[in-house]
Amino acid sequence: MSSFRLQLDLQLFSGEKTEPATPKKRQEARKKGQVAKSMDLPAAFILFFSFLSFFLLGGYMKEKLVSLFQSIFYNFLTLNLSMNNIMVLFETVSLQMLLILGPIFLISIVIAVLGNYLQIGFLMTGDPLMMKFSKINPLEGAKKLFSLRAVVDFLKSMLKMTIIGIVVYQTLWGEREHIMQLARLPLEEIIIYASAVTLRLGIKIGFVLIVLAILDYIYQKYEHEKSLKMSKQDIKDEYKKSEGDPLVKGKIREKQRRMALQRMMAEVPKADVVITNPTHFAVAIQYDAGKMQAPTVIAKGTDYIALKIKQVAKDNGIITMENKPLARALYAQVEIGESIPSDMFQAVAEVLAYVYKMKGK
């Protein structure tokens, strides 16, 4: 009873997903688009580097923007209202806005690509885009809505909003004296001050979001590794699928050995002599002067197979000779179908000469 209970416990334990995923399981998951990835990390990088680029390229953007307004006020307001003039104005404004905002767009695209590449590398897959009925199943949707992952995502959002609120509050509270004096300043200084505060807030918030996104990526990697874990039975099943069932492979090998043995036994009647140990080894030698450059081993075996070779030789009138050293050497050094090596020519030639003499050749 105790042994049955122990076996049952071991079977239950083998079903637990406690083993790390195999490379094959990881590769299959990657092909399906199942990778450890934080959606917050690229967004945080884009926000941070966008505000940083505003800070670094502020002079360039200001110069281009002032030049655009000067061009509009000095060159276009005095022109007649016509289709051609409107098209020229539209093209000029579009080109200038592209030059102003182009660097920001380019930086955002590069950062977005790098943010994803650093997490998952290069990955092209259409599996997540395929239509699956499970995605529109209301029950599955309800499960995801009330799952642990949904709770974690909600807590992450609350944490981000709380931290961002604290950063904004502390920054504005530190600038309260300057903010109270804005009503007495010219419009240009107000705009410059508001821009500077906004840039500092954007950089601070972006940095905070990057830190939170890195923590989220670590969590996503942990969840991904957890979801990929396999049980011992899963690993065995995967091995069977990739390498084949050991029982089936064993049967195939046994059948192959049996067929090879049958083919070998069919060659024994062609032998000129069988050299034996006398009981443990048997090697069948054939020599055809017109076709072979040297005598060839056409069959060999030990124990039971050796007895079978000697029995087939006896049934077909093949001479059997006992030569223990030669039988052992031939069995160890010469494979079936191979010619006798030169260092054994003398010994084999003496055996064949004796056989031919007995046959009257």
UniProtKB/TrEMBL annotation:
Keyword annotations: Bacterial flagellum biogenesis, Bacterial flagellum protein export, Cell membrane, Cell projection, Cilium, Flagellum, Membrane, Protein transport, Transmembrane, Transmembrane helix, Transport
One GO process term, biological-process aspect: protein secretion
Subcellular location per the Swiss-Prot or TrEMBL entry: Cell membrane
Membrane-related topology note: Multi-pass membrane protein
CC per GO annotation: plasma membrane
InterPro entries the UniProt entry points to: FlhB, T3SS_substrate_exporter
Domain of life, per lineage: Bacteria
Short name of one Pfam family: Bac_export_2
Positions of transmembrane segments: 41-60, 72-90, 96-125, 146-170, 190-219
Function: Required for formation of the rod structure in the basal body of the flagellar apparatus. Together with FliI and FliH, may constitute the export apparatus of flagellin.
PANTHER family: FLAGELLAR BIOSYNTHETIC PROTEIN FLHB
NCBIfam families linked: flhB
Family of this protein: Belongs to the type III secretion exporter family.
Name the UniProt record assigns to this protein: Flagellar biosynthetic protein FlhB
Organism: Paenibacillus solanacearum
Upper taxonomic lineage: Bacteria, Bacillati, Bacillota, Bacilli, Bacillales
Gene designation per UniProt: flhB
